[in-house]
Amino acid sequence: MISNYRKRIALERIEILFNEAKRAMKLKKPELAKRYIELARKIGMRCNVKIPSQYKTKFCKKCNVYLIPSKNCKIKLDSKKHLIKITCLECGNIKIFRYKK
Question: Which CATH number fits domain 2-98: 2.40.100.10, 1.10.10.10, 2.40.30.20, 1.20.5.420?
Answer without folding.
Answer: 1.20.5.420
